[in-house]
Amino acid sequence: MRLAILAAASIAIAGATAAEPSNVLVVQGGRLIAGNQRLVHYGDLQLANSTDQRLLRERVGLAIADLCDPSHFSVADPHGSMTCTKQAWTDVQPRMRQLSVRLAAR
After folding, report:
1. Which of 4, 9, 17, 71 is placed for a possible disulfide with 63 were both Cys, Cβ 3.0 to 4.6 Å?
2. For residues 99 and 69, what is the distance between their CA atoms, to the nearest angstrom?
């Protein structure tokens, strides 16, 4: 499953004002570098039910784990991975909640 999620989590170039594509959450780390985003597809999920909401959280978690992998940070920045993970979750959680509420209302 991890390979399928990573394949679906396409690398994008960072862009602060870019709109999110339909059926995709953009997960971004705190550093402004190329490859600092992952796309998490959710078009196949029914976010009105808790099982698919959990699947979305798992997909986002895998994307964040890939994005914030400790190997992407130098030894001079020993907390970089943890900071990246925290920033990415802080950024994406409100959008996940809005998405779940909006799609549950359909």
Report:
1. 9
2. 26
